[in-house]
Amino acid sequence: MEKSEIMVQMNHVKKAYKGNVLFTDLNFTVERGESCAIVGANGAGKSVLLKMICGLVRPDEGDITVGGEKLEKGKFPKDIGVILDNAGFLPGETGLKNLSIIAGILRKVTKEELEKTMRLVGLDPASKVKVGKYSLGMKQRLAIAQAIMEKPSLLILDEPFNAIDEKTVKDFRALLGRLNAEEGVTILMTSHHQEDIQGLCKNIYMIESL
């Protein structure tokens, strides 16, 4: 089957929480290979939008298609890497052990590939330091590693640069830029900081509260 040129398609989507309407008649398209960002004030619905695309939250109305497949109740998109909220790593295990546990679900990558991914994000796979002792920047590096370790076609990143040091932000921007430009990975992310997305995201979408 030929791959669709549209990676994400939202048609006439409506979503409300406790009477608060976040989206109504939302139509949104992300093309395959596109790198784009969603910006907006806190509470505008950026995270909810990403969760709907991941199949974790169902829209009240409308349809969502990811990678050419329509999302139904209980159905999740394939071939995606995700960072949403705080990553739920096991604090008493090493970074490599955490990735190994997650990778064991689909069994798509080897231990050697996990080690390579950790080095790619600036972590030592041989380190015996438990994740509970990681700095915030190290935890975010590990989160990026789990998102990209299976070489997904689509990355969904909710505030990936939030509360981390300038060097880590610079490293992440360069890495994401290479994945998009050289491997054609589609990137959809949110950010509060304009400087984080400039030069990385070709298209920027603003969400305004209703």
Terminal CA distance reads: 40 Å
Extract low-pLDDT stretches.
none
Estimate the global geometry from the Cα principal axes.
Answer: globular
H and E order: EEEHEEEHHHEHEHE
Average pLDDT number: 91
Amount of helix: 25-40%
Q: What is the number of beta strands? A: 9
In terms of DSSP E residues, the strand content is: 25-35%
How many helices? The count is 6
Helix-strand makeup class: alpha/beta
What integer value in Å does the Rg equal?
17 Å
The main β sheet shows up as: 5 strands, parallel
Strand order of the largest sheet: 6-7-8-3-9
Description:
With 210 residues, the protein is of the alpha/beta class. Helix content is 30%, strand content 27%. It contains six helices and nine strands, in the order E-E-E-H-E-E-E-H-H-H-E-H-E-H-E. The chain has a five-stranded parallel sheet with strand order 6-7-8-3-9. The chain has a four-stranded antiparallel sheet with strand order 2-1-4-5, with no helix packed on it. Helix 5 (166-183) links the parallel strand 7 (154-158) and strand 8. The longest helix is centred in the last third of the chain and has 18 residues, at 166-183. The radius of gyration is 17 Å and the shape is globular. The protein starts with 5 loop residues before the first strand and ends with a strand.
Summarize this structure as a short list of keywords or feature phrases.
210 residues; alpha/beta; 4-stranded antiparallel sheet; 27% strand
Question: What can be said about this structure in brief?
Answer:
The chain has 210 residues and is an alpha/beta fold. Helices cover 30% and strands 27% of the residues.
